[in-house]
Amino acid sequence: VELLKNPPAGEEEFLLDLLTNRVPPGVDEAAYVKAGFLAAIAKGEAKSPLLTPEKAIELLGTMQGGYNIHPLIDALDDAKLAPIAAKALSHTLLMFDNFYDVEEKAKAGNEYAKQVMQSWADAEWFLNRPALAEKLTVTVFKVTGETNTDDLSPAPDAWSRPDIPLHALAMLKNAREGIEPDQPGVVGPIKQIEALQQKGFPLAYVGDVVGTGSSRKSATNSVLWFMGDDIPHVPNKRGGGLCLGGKIAPIFFNTMEDAGAL
Prior knowledge:
Its EC number is 4.2.1.3. The chain is α/β, with parallel strands linked by helices. It has helices spanning 2-5, 12-21, 29-43, 53-60, 69-75, 82-90, 99-107, 111-121, 124-127, 149-152, 164-168, 190-197, 217-227, 250-258; strands at 139-148, 203-212, 229-231, 234-239, 242-248.
């Protein structure tokens, strides 16, 4: 935060990228610091040559929910910032009881709060998302037989689960037909995956039976780290992706679906 207030020469772009893209959203401790700093910029209580109040509200709108919500709702009362805050809130779903704060402002006559309520009612957060392509061209990453969640997120590597890119290295670390781990028992088939990625198409995880065993989101995280798409403003995590299976375990299916996978 102090560096953002007084950025060293030549470090401006790097610092702004750290703030914009490398802080986990939600209720992480770093998100608390980020939201507090951006709120102070928006209110004029702090200054940075890299951020205007308008930009601060825009960045608060990328944080999904948690500590960013109150500053965005407060900004609905600022004529200059309200249009940006309304746009951000219209695409924010994790409101919980803060929904009633927006409702209260709308009932009191705040036009921007009314816009937010109408946008939620019209489900613009969903309907404005990009349409699914009519045709998808992918490269198949085939895993024969049954893949359980321990193959995708091994229990002995549970310590690394919060670090998705690190934990994903252990996916399929034990050799099987068609799968060649970089370091058997330690590191999965990373080189094999990278070679397939060189074809230039997204990878699709294809198996006979996929996702059996205990329910663990980390299994989905590992698959999507290699098969998914970057999530704007969310570091070290991916969504989307494509998974095909003769059979897909119901809980794994739902978890993949929740992460945006097909």
